[in-house]
Description:
One of its GO terms (molecular function) is sucrose-phosphate synthase activity. Residues 298-472 form the Glycosyl transferase family domain. Homodimer or homotetramer. InterPro entries: Glyco_trans_1, HAD-like_sf, HAD_sf, SPP-like_dom, SPS, SPS_C, SPS_pln, Sucrose_synth_GT-B1. By secondary structure, the protein is an alpha/beta fold. It has four domains: 1-127, Glycogen Phosphorylase B (Rossmann fold, 3-Layer(aba) Sandwich), CATH 3.40.50; 129-253 and 479-500, Glycogen Phosphorylase B (Rossmann fold); 256-262 and 288-478, Rossmann fold (3-Layer(aba) Sandwich); 568-846, Rossmann fold, CATH 3.40.50.1000. The strands form six sheets. Strands 21-20-19-18-17-26-27-28 form an eight-stranded mixed beta sheet, with helices on both faces. A six-stranded parallel beta sheet has the order 10-9-8-11-12-13, sandwiched between helices. The chain has a four-stranded parallel beta sheet with strand order 4-5-6-7, with helices on both faces. A hairpin with a 4-residue loop joins β24 (733-738) and β25. The radius of gyration is 30 Å and the shape is elongated. The two termini are 34 Å apart. The mean pLDDT is 91. Bound molecules: uridine-5'-diphosphate-glucose and 6-O-phosphono-beta-D-fructofuranose. The site of uridine-5'-diphosphate-glucose (UPG) has 25 residues, from α1 and α14.
Amino acid sequence: MHGLVRGENMELGRDSDTGGQVKYVVELARALANTEGVHRVDLLTRQISSPEVDYSYGEPVEMLSCPPEGSDSCGSYIIRIPCGSRDKYIPKESLWPHIPEFVDGALNHIVSIARSLGEQVNGGKPIWPYVIHGHYADAGEVAAHLAGALNVPMVLTGHSLGRNKFEQLLQQGRITREDIDRTYKIMRRIEAEEQSLDAAEMVVTSTRQEIDAQWGLYDGFDIKLERKLRVRRRRGVSCLGRYMPRMVVIPPGMDFSYVLTQDSQEPDGDLKSLIGPDRNQIKKPVPPIWSEIMRFFSNPHKPTILALSRPDHKKNVTTLVKAFGECQPLRELANLVLILGNRDDIEEMPNSSSVVLMNVLKLIDQYDLYGQVAYPKHHKQSEVPDIYRLAAKTKGVFINPALVEPFGLTLIEAAAYGLPIVATRNGGPVDIVKALNNGLLVDPHDQQAISDALLKLVANKHLWAECRKNGLKNIHRFSWPEHCRNYLSHVEHCRNRHPTSSLDIMKVPEELTSDSLRDVDDISLRFSTEGDFTLNGELDAGTRQKKLVDAISQMNSMKGCSAAIYSPGRRQMLFVVAVDSYDDNGNIKANLNEIIKNMIKAADLTSGKGKIGFVLASGSSLQEVVDITQKNLINLEDFDAIVCNSGSEIYYPWRDMMVDADYETHVEYKWPGESIRSVILRLICTEPAAEDDITEYASSCSTRCYAISVKQGVKTRRVDDLRQRLRMRGLRCNIVYTHAATRLNVIPLCASRIQALRYLSIRWGIDMSKTVFFLGEKGDTDYEDLLGGLHKTIILKGVVGSDSEKLLRSEENFKREDAVPQESPNISYVKENGGSQEIMSTLEAYGIK
Ligand SMILES: O=c1ccn([C@@H]2O[C@H](COP(=O)(O)OP(=O)(O)O[C@H]3O[C@H](CO)[C@@H](O)[C@H](O)[C@H]3O)[C@@H](O)[C@H]2O)c(=O)[nH]1
Ligand SMILES: O=P(O)(O)OC[C@H]1O[C@](O)(CO)[C@@H](O)[C@@H]1O
């Protein structure tokens, strides 16, 4: 998601963000688009238009691969979506607050592709993605939102996982828990990984080890429960609302197009034929990167120990330099080559990378390794094969001493060029070495073990030759075409398991004729003579349609009668009131009336009647909304939609307050229904509770919302704690405290106020940037979700009495600034009693006139 992704001359190792994932996703996208049955692959990443990065990262679209000749596929593309400040590179640790904006931008792209594919091949009905695949924690979270909004199966690949990284950094004891979180935003990242697990139908892992030892650390994945649920499903026994994502091992492939036949031929181990005894006298032309490396060495003929990685602390290069520096026999026998990305000036690099490089340089000086270690400043992507070749030619070894390596693309690259390996025993290398049998595993914290293993391979010619041969023989196991075939068959299973409900984009006919209304569902008619044409909300779509058509013919036969189409699809903008205005007892405050009036007045004065539609989004049930609006003389007919129970239901006042049954089906995925009741009642309190402390709030419960009433003063668990407990049981829900923390709404995972609004925005064809949210300064525990995104926000100061946010997260969890943009041009404030005038000026400042 962070950007710096392109198809050619990838800048791998440019910083700690540009690593294996970049190469993996580009190669996967190309390989998938070349696989039969795949129509199009879009790789979505952040757009960066900044002088500090190459202009190519600002191009909105890049074609990655052309469709194969004669196929009806249309290839693969990189699509760059802006989010966060456009002219700045944002490192992955600081991207979190911008995720909702990326989601909205991505939805706009997907809707436009879905529409145009629909026009081309599906009689105008949109064609939605077959699968949405999130790579790494950040894009995992994005994919979870997109898949939820579109009800499309989601797949996840972790690449590298927060819990492991956290554990290893703690074990190293170099920095404190607090500093780890400050530097890596690790708690926020872990929550994103948990959320991705909640939503994912399937997780693609690279090794078995990744499932057991890496994903096994997460609340949302339990291997035993996963097996149990699989067996129950197979036997047709109910899983009691519990879900586990399916884990599959599909190792990544290798791009063999750069591997030459010579790479598998016996190396002579001799550079003398190329360079004479004097290293400045190169006899034959050699790849430029070889000269670049050899200029560091006093004796370039020695075997080369090669390490190649991002300049990231996790890669543990300093332990390698210490191991080399302190082992005299190794220093005598071999040279060390460190390829740690590219740099011009260390001072100008991101702090995380410059610290690593400075430490390495200090150690080289400390052990006086001059003439024995090479650390070139630059290398091109196209030169990487030559780097491996050089090491193989000198009968050297590749080493990856990372504290933890989820998979390790460099290890399969090394094997493909005939280079034996020494690798960390923490992570995927365990499986790689098992599959290739081409090297040794070491404890990355054990310096002695590292030098021993290197010495063993460099000194033992027989072992070296055996490992090289084995690597070359087995490397075909890492193949992209094979990966894609396997992948697609698993995705097909996901599609079969996933309930589909196809999201339709509303079409609004220009003319009012029986024909133009034939395929239209979401409209009602206003008659000039006999009032509105009303329809029974209970009617199914087909019957409504027939009645509408009949009404039109009737109208046409009546003299002097005309009708106007009433449909939210006609709106140019949406104004959403989501003010959680409760008093200390959790009752809705009467000021909601004033807020709504001001908003409507400002809208009318700004754009004129009819152009702006209104939506009310609340944690209350429909009945509560109706009661309070009636009491305060608010006309619900002014609204195009009422989003109730924290986003689990949508009602349409212009259709006799009919509930949107499609939305209910749309969000029902993974909803545990009845099974959630007893569990949540048992879990909610932190202390033993009296009988009437926690009760079911029956009048607000619905098929998709389990509402619980909490007596004031009763100590309940925070959202993060409760969610963790549910996850550990395989129950995937969204939980929201509302009504000043006197109510808990348990709703489907993909239902929320923000997702309901995204749903309406897609259906009505009004993109989120044309939406204005009216919020208080605080609110229900889903308040933060309403702040980020492409929409504009107007925060009304002082309108909210009591909020629920104290029950959102515990102190040890991530901070609000890791979730919500601190300064956003999309958020403005209106002072208490500012009224419609001040709202109007704020709208004007947003360019809404
Ligand atoms: O200076 C450098 C540094 C790296 N690379 C390349 O970058 C990639 C690095 O990938 P990898 O060794 O797999 O490490 P990470 O960058 O850490 O990638 C993450 O994502 C990979 C793909 O899922 C996993 O294999 C890793 O374990 C995981 O940490 C390889 O292709 C390298 O050849 C360069 O070209 N130049
Ligand atoms: O933050 P970690 O765990 O080091 O993650 C490494 C991963 O992050 C990236 O650098 C950025 O997404 C990837 O290229 C790599 O796969």
